[in-house]
Amino acid sequence: MTVRSPAVAGQFYPAHPARLKRMISDFLAAVNPESVPAAGFVVPHAGYIYSGSTAAHAYAALALEPPSRILLVGPTHRVYVEGLALSGASGFETPLGVVGTDRDLEAALLESPAVSVRPDVHAEEHSLEVQLPFLQVVAPGVPVVPVAVGDADATAVADVIEIALGLPGTLLLVSTDLSHYHPYDEAAALDADTIERVIALDRTIPPDRACGAYPLNGALVAAQRHSWSPELLSACSSGDTAGTRDGVVGYAAFRLRIGYA
Predict the structure, then answer these.
(1) Which of 82, 129, 152, 258 has the largest CB neighbor count within 10 A?
(2) Which residues pair with 252 in a beta bridge?
(3) Are the C-beta atoms of 101 and 92 separated by less than 8 Å?
(4) Domain 3-257 is in which class?
(5) Is the overall model pTM greater than 0.85, yes or no?
């Protein structure tokens, strides 16, 4: 049994369990979620002081109807990989304990030639790790399969998502931030355009508009196939939370609504 150790605890989020749980609970308490059938959510992955308040809008909604399992897809920041990579770990540790993976889902995903097992890709990747403490609070005990999406065509990503959706009760969670290091007003305009493109199911969003463009575009292809409707839940930038406005990072949370136009 291999457990992936936390790489960014104490950096992106508190390493002290009580402090971490309190921070997440405070973010969630500030949200009044609506119960709407959803196939998945899109969430940011920056440090909690920057994007946690935005992510909480998705997680508060997720908490209303916890799924059977979660497919978590996010970009790679440190190690290049072609296609999509599983960790090979049986669990992911955070200060709140160990999140177990879903072995049936992992086995199904490995049937795809686009999916490999690459522990090195996951070892220091934060885009997936930062989602886990939120999930431990809103959906305790629900297994999660984190998948690092590297250089991959949107259709190939969507095909892997389809495999996961073949297991009843699977929820899709996409990790991405928006634009990076533009002045505040310029970033706001760029992010507003990207948000419109997500809502319009434009699967050609470039990486300079969303660092998780590859998993996001794949999710948008899946949304086209299943008639999901992206709904913006919240958006801001680091200039609205804990950063300066000289060069900001944008964040947004979306719900992928089922059967709603």
Answers:
(1) 129
(2) 235
(3) yes
(4) alpha beta
(5) yes
Those residues with Cβ within 8 angstroms of residue 91's Cβ, 6 or more apart along the chain or in another chain: 1, 2, 3, 4, 98, 99, 100, 101
Location of structure tokens 């291999």:
2
Angstrom distances, CA of residue 224 to CA of 29, 103, 140, 158, 163 = 33, 28, 30, 10, 16
Report the amino acid identity of residue 25: S
d(CA 197, CA 203): 8
Q: What are the tens digits of pLDDT across the range 220-261? A: 999 999 999 999 999 999 999 999 999 999 999 999 999 755
At 234, list the tokens: 């919240």
Q: Are strands 69-75 and 97-100 parallel, antiparallel or unpaired?
A: unpaired
Using one digit for the tens of pLDDT, what is the confidence trace for 92-101? 999 999 999 9
- Alpha-carbon distance of 162 to 193, in angstroms, equals 28
171 close to 67: Cβ distance less than 8 angstroms: yes
| Closest-CA residue to 150 (of 72, 212, 84) | 84
* Long-range contacts, 96-100 (Cβ 8 Å, 24+): 96/17, 96/20, 96/21, 96/133, 96/136, 96/137, 97/136, 98/3, 99/132, 99/135, 99/136, 99/143, 99/144, 100/143, 100/144
The two structure tokens encoding residue 242: 């804990």
Token pair recorded at residue 71 = 């497919």
